[in-house]
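We now fix the convention by which a protein and its fold are recorded. Here is one such record, which you should read through line by line:

>
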Amino acid sequence: MTKTHFTAASLIAGPVLLLTGVLLRARFPFFFPDQLAAYDGHPILVTASYSAFAAGTVVLCPAVLHLAGLNRTAALGGSLTIVGLFARTFHAGIDHLAFQLVDVQGRAAATAAVRDSYTGFHIFHYASFAIMLGWPLLALGAHRAGVLGAPRALALALAAALPLGVLKGTTPLSVAATTGLAAALVPLGVRTLLDAPRPSSRSLARAAALTAVLAGLAYVASLG
């Protein structure tokens, strides 16, 4: 397995995970009291939604870094986008804690805690602009490099419309943004995968062994 294969996997899996997370919670109202109520009534579904979205945020990073290497415009856009993705992972941690409060202290207490702390200071308050500016710049850079045509570059830029913050539900803009992201990056990932050299049997065996080791380490880490 090569760097190209990992990049292709990121281009494909990242947008798909984000879109899956957005669609799984599409039936519930947008604002945080409704999201907490949704978790209270449908914990498995909502956990799956937020987990898929958080995983997609992380998995997407190699794809963004790949596009950021195309030219200076893409480098600036990619840097800003990565900062915004870090902010999303920070928000995912708050989401997780809020859902645990529902389990431990009840929905009313969890809602009050989120409401009373919603405007509390954190450094990522200042990162919201980054992802909104980053995606359009990254799309422009990819278009200038000839990697994305105009329609798919516009689809990538649309990712800037995805709401950013704590316990955000799904809106039509959320669906449009994640669909645009998938439309822009998944075909590129497929093309990258098809153009990559076919891995040898030895390389596949090493990758399988490494995957097994990492899975074991992940399980051990989850125990602590």
About this structure: The chain has a mean pLDDT of 93. The chain is about 75% helix and 0% strand.
